[in-house]
Known about the structure:
Elements: E1 14-19, E2 25-30, E3 33-38, E4 46-51, E5 57-62, E6 68-73, E7 76-84, E8 89-95, E9 102-105, E10 109-114, E11 117-122, E12 128-133, E13 144-145, E14 153-157, E15 163-169, E16 174-182, E17 186-191, E18 197-202, E19 207-212, E20 218-223, E21 232-237, E22 243-248, E23 252-257, H1 272-283, H2 289-296, E24 302-305, E25 313-320, E26 323-330, E27 334-339, E28 346-347, E29 350-355, H3 383-390, E30 401-405, H4 410-414
Parallel strand pairs: 24-28
Antiparallel strand pairs: 1-2, 2-3, 3-4, 5-6, 6-7, 7-8, 8-30, 9-10, 10-11, 11-12, 13-14, 14-15, 15-16, 17-18, 18-19, 19-20, 21-22, 22-23, 23-24, 25-26, 26-27, 27-29
Amino acid sequence: MNLASHAGEANANLLFVNFNQDCTSLAVGTKTGCRLFSLSSVDKLEPIYEHNETEDICIVERLFSSSLVAMVSLSSPRKLKVCHFKKGTEICNYSYPNTILAVRLNRLRLIVALEESLYIHNIRDMKVLHTIRDTPPNPTGLCALSVHNDNCYLAYPGSNQIGEVQIFDTVNLRAVTMIPAHDSPLAALAFNTTATKLATASEKGTVIRVFSLPDGQKLFEFRRGMKRCVSINSLAFTTDSVFLSASSNTETVHIFKLETPRERPTEEQGSWMGYVSQALKSSASYLPSGVTDVFNQGRAFANIKLPFSGLKNICALAMIQKLPRVLVASQDGYLYIYNLDPAEGGDCTLLKQHRLISDTSGEGIAEQGGDRPLTKPGGPSSFAAVAANKLPEPIPDRNVTEGRIVLPNFIKKNY
């Protein structure tokens, strides 16, 4: 979650926060450096690495539990650095024609997203294998990279007018399919662990859809709400693909259960819901399709009420100490950990909240008990605009420039 465009708002020191690919650690970028935390415990947020008094890090992505991290600074937003944080060494660096908006990693590929292009690197030697050029304008760098080696797919918007998703095979370097997911432009994308499912949300934010891969057939459709349109911040599957979370700029995080109609409990024939279900089935032939679609959409299995609204956040579903937990990292500089009852669902309870960065008074990283007054952000400018303002003068467009490479086969040797 890139917060560079929110640098003058709530908790201005926080520039970036994101979970790694298997949700075992959390990466935090600030105006003075970056931090990595282990997510092995609910009660304690264990620091793995902390490097302060350095550049303002607006992107930091860790490769699973390895020592490999990819970083971008706000002062040099066109340069990617790949580092070995345990050794404190820079492995390589690359420069790009425009501002880097997002970086995605798996064990085979590293993806760099610019506003109108995507660069696909071989992660073993960081060579550029392929460039997807002239993509529709994508000012947030929205894209998703699967973590599965056999289905090593990249998903990105195919249009900035409607919600088309392009699926690209980053191993065989070919287009796989295009999914017409929504009528409105895309806001969020997420693969499941095996890359057999893709979850999508549009800028309207009322409906979450799940598609099968590689054929692109719609499997599930969930309604987040009907009263208002919202901005979906993140989507995330559990490792077994049973649950899907959706966080937004509201105070509610929705958790949906991916179950087919025949797996759902059968309504009693005499119940009100049973009567409504039968009536809908019998009237489906003459009711407008939009009406029947609304009644057929799944509802949230569980919900979280956050202690704030209007702040950017990112959500993950993880197993911590063999129990399912919902993790929400927020623009306010805190990580919130909730329980999830996989059998009953319902309202999730807050178990712990941890401060991710030092506050203005100099207090270090610590646990925080009660709720705090939060500031709702105003309308932010884009990250690309903020990054551009940091540059002293425009830099002419050019192809990717290879920087210093210290260790070509660093994956084999370092993790």
